[in-house]
Amino acid sequence: MERILLLACFAALILFNPANAQDEHASAGESDATTTVITFLNGLKTDNFKYYSNRKIEFFSELAKGQHPTATIVTCSDSRVHTNMMDATPEGQLFMVRNIGNQLSTAEGSVEYGVHHLHTPVLLFIGHSRCGAIAAATSNYSKESPSIKRELDTITISKDLNNIDGVRANVNNQVATAMLKFDDEIKEGKLTVIGAVMDFADDLHQGTGKLIFINVSGETDANKLANLEAVLKAKKAKQKK
After folding, report:
1. Residues 48 and 74 sit within 8 Å (Cβ to Cβ)
2. What is the distance between the alpha carbons of residues 143 and 155, in angstroms, rounded to a whole number?
3. Per residue in 63-74, pLDDT tens?
4. pLDDT tens-digit series, residues 95-123
């Protein structure tokens, strides 16, 4: 069986060979670009084959029935930040929203869908180390296109912050804005808004590649956040009063 699968994959690669796809009159630059695209698509096909062949049909049957995610997650579009860094089985679990700067304002409809229609009990904003959006927002981005400037304009942090402090400030701003927007859901105990940083550069000195929670329902004290369960119970008790 393994031999048959290997032969099938080999045949697919031959059919999708860069040499067959390149125009003989294409420039070197065009040829390199085409090779990159073909290599990328071949990689997608191979990884996708591994993905679906390693799962039973029942797995996809459950997904086909509909989605009932636990969390709406707003994270940066940055290619270095992906679900596999925090959840090995995100299917049906995470309603993902991505934009530059992990913002509520530039993806408000998508976030509302997660909270109001999918009724996720968690809304999680995830910033990350070495964020390009934060670097741009704290510098002069006047030469950017109108569309990019429009998205950077809504990252309202101090210009004098270093990158990781800017990342934290932005995450805290997103949590604060979301708590105002979804105040009713929070008061009813239906939603918890959380902020975190995916620190793949160890800029917070708590571990390379670690997902660090920096804000839970407005609580930002690192000492208190060391015990997330206690923070959440305290917030719930406060809501009942």
Report:
1. no
2. 17
3. 999 999 999 999
4. 999 999 999 999 999 999 999 999 999 99
- Output the CA torsion sign for 174, 237, 221, 94: negative
Classify 209 in phi/psi space as left (phi over 0), alpha (psi -120 to 50) or beta: left
State how beta strands 192-199 and 210-216 pair.
antiparallel
pLDDT score recorded for residue 21: 44
Contact call for residues 231 and 225 (beta carbons, < 8 A): yes
Q: What is the mean pLDDT of the chain?
A: 90
Q: State the residue for tokens 């402090």.
A: 165
**Per-residue pLDDT reduced to its tens digit, 44-86:** 999 999 999 999 999 999 999 999 999 999 999 999 999 999 9
pTM: 0.86
Q: Which tokens go with 178? A: 């979301």
> Taking the chain, what is the end-to-end CA distance rounded to the nearest angstrom?
63
More confident residue, 169 or 19: 169
Helices (H), the chain: 2-15, 18-21, 28-53, 57-64, 108-112, 132-137, 146-152, 163-181, 183-187, 222-225, 228-240
Note whether 216 and 228 are within 8 A (CB): yes
Structure tokens at 126: 């995830």
State which amino acid sits at residue 167. V
Find the angle CA(91)-CA(95)-CA(98) to the nearest 5 degrees: 115
